[in-house]
């Protein structure tokens, strides 16, 4: 006969849940360290070795490689969003907010390009991921930028209709350019790239590249016949 009270079982289950959460966090940390040691192409053997355990133990806490990859992505997303919020919050001027977001994003991927490649290339993924943390990250950052810009425009008495698509457009622009920048082995300094992207995002192509189409010649007066 089981004489354990529900409260005792609940406490035991709670302690075990906390142990599992802590162990998962340790394995995420080990994955980050393994990426730093072996690069974006790191495999499960290297990750298990970094954690001082076996792949079988890793799979006790993560159903498969994809689940571990999602957990790592979520950690990276949390760090990046926190930094972006801090950077954007340093100013109330929309252009400076955009500049801060661009600079922070580029600084983040430059600081650890192998981790960024690991995240965006889905190195460990062995099945489709229903909720891609990186796509969700882009949406989250786009919402954040759009909301902050909308607030600044409201304070300035300006129309906020463009704030949401503008916020998402800025993030798409910066992410695509950042990917190119890393693939091309950083052909220009980060500050220069950040300036180019800020100018483009703020003014739009029409404000950056002045049209030079020829104008029509003035009409000639008609002679009396």
What does this protein look like?
The chain has 225 residues and is mostly helical. It has two domains: 12-62, Arc Repressor Mutant, subunit A (Orthogonal Bundle); 65-206, Orthogonal Bundle (Tetracycline Repressor, domain 2), CATH 1.10.357.10. 72% of the residues lie in helices and 0% in strands. It has nine helices and no strands. It has helices spanning 6-38, 44-51, 55-61, 65-88, 94-111, 113-121, 133-155, 163-183, 190-208. The longest helix is centred in the N-terminal third of the chain and has 33 residues, at 6-38.
The helix/strand series, from N terminus to C terminus, equals HHHHHHHHH
Which stretches are poorly predicted, pLDDT < 50 over at least 5 residues?
205-219, 221-225
Structural class based on helices, strands and sheet pairing: mainly alpha
Major sheet attributes:
none
Give the fraction of residues assigned to helices: over 70%
User: What is the CATH fold-level name of the largest domain?
Assistant: Tetracycline Repressor, domain 2
User: At the first level of CATH, what is the class of the largest domain?
Assistant: Mainly Alpha
Described by the principal axes of the CA atoms, the overall outline is: globular
Question: Which features does this protein show?
Answer:
mainly alpha; globular; 2 domains; Tetracycline Repressor, domain 2; 225 residues; Arc Repressor Mutant, subunit A; 9 helices; 0% strand
């Amino acid at each position: 006969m089981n004489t354990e009270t529900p409260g005792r079982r609940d406490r035991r289950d709670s302690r075990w849940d906390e142990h599992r959460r802590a162990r998962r966090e340790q394995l995420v940390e080990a994955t980050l360290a393994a990426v730093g040691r072996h690069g974006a192409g790191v495999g499960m053997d290297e990750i298990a070795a970094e954690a001082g355990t076996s792949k079988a133990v890793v799979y006790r806490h993560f159903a498969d490689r994809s689940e571990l990859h999602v957990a790592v992505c979520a950690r990276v997303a949390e760090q990046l969003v926190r930094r972006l919020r801090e950077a954007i919050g340093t100013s109330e001027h929309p252009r400076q907010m955009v500049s801060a977001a661009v600079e922070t994003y580029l600084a983040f991927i430059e600081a650890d390009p192998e981790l960024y490649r690991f995240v965006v290339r889905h190195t460990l993924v062995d099945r489709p991921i229903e909720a891609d943390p990186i796509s969700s990250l882009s949406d989250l950052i786009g919402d954040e930028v759009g909301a902050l810009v909308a607030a600044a425009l409201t304070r300035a008495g300006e129309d906020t209709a463009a704030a949401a698509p503008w916020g998402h457009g800025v993030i798409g622009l910066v992410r695509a350019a950042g990917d190119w920048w890393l693939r091309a082995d950083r052909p220009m300094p980060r500050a220069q790239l950040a300036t180019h992207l800020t100018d483009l995002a703020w003014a739009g192509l029409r404000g950056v590249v002045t049209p030079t189409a020829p104008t029509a010649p003035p009409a000639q007066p008609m002679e009396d016949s």
